[in-house]
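If you are new to this repository, start here. Below is one unmodified record pulled from the training split, so you can see the exact layout before writing a loader.
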Amino acid sequence: MVPSRAARSAPPTTIRRLSTYYRVLGALHAEGRANASSRALAQLTGFTAAQVRRDLTYFGTFGKRGVGYAVAPLRRRLAAILGIDRGWRVALIGVGNLGRALLAYQGFGAQGFTVAAAFDNDPRMVGAAVGGQTVLPVERLARAVREQRIDMVVVTVPAAAAQPVVDRAVAAGVRAVLNFAPAKLQVPDHVELAHVDLAVELEYLAYCLSR
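And here is the target side for that same chain:
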C-alpha cells in the first residue's frame, strides 16, 4: 500500500505515539475488550482524546461515533503502519554490559524483530554464547549482513568506535541504525538513524526533580 500524503507528513512524535497506542490496544485485546473510545485510550496513554484522534487521522478514518475503535482491527492496522507486521532482522554490535542486557531481552520477537547476530572486537568475547547468539568478530559483519539478511543494527560500542562501526554496517548494506553510543554519527540519506542517550534522559529527569 502506498502511504497517503498525510501519512508521509506525520511528524516523528506522532509515529512514536502510535507505538504506545499499539501496546495499549494489545493489553485491551488480551482483556477481551472489543472496542475502546479515544477517551479510554487517552486515559491509558496519558495523551488527550483529541491527540489520539488527531494522530490516527493521519493514517485514515478509524472508529465510529458512539462506539469507538474496534480494538483488534485497529491494532492490526497500526502494526502495518509501523511495519512490525513483517519480520525485521537485527544485529547487535558491542557485547558489553548494555549489549548483553539487550541480547537477554525476550520482548523483541513479539514485536517482529529477530536478533540474528551479535558482534564484538574483544577477543575475550568473540566465540562466547550470549543471549542465544555466538558472538562474531566485527570483521565478519559484511558477510553476516548478506547471509543473514540483516536490516538494522543496534550499536552499543564506546563513542570512539561508533562511527567506524556504523560506516562498516552501512557499507555492508544495513538500512537502519539504533545508536546507544554517546556520539554524533553521520550516515547517508538512505539510512535511518536513531539515537538513545540514557545520560540525556537522566539529566532531563534530574532537571524535572530540581525545579
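Two things worth knowing about this chain: The longest strand covers residues 113-120. The chain is about 45% helix and 15% strand.
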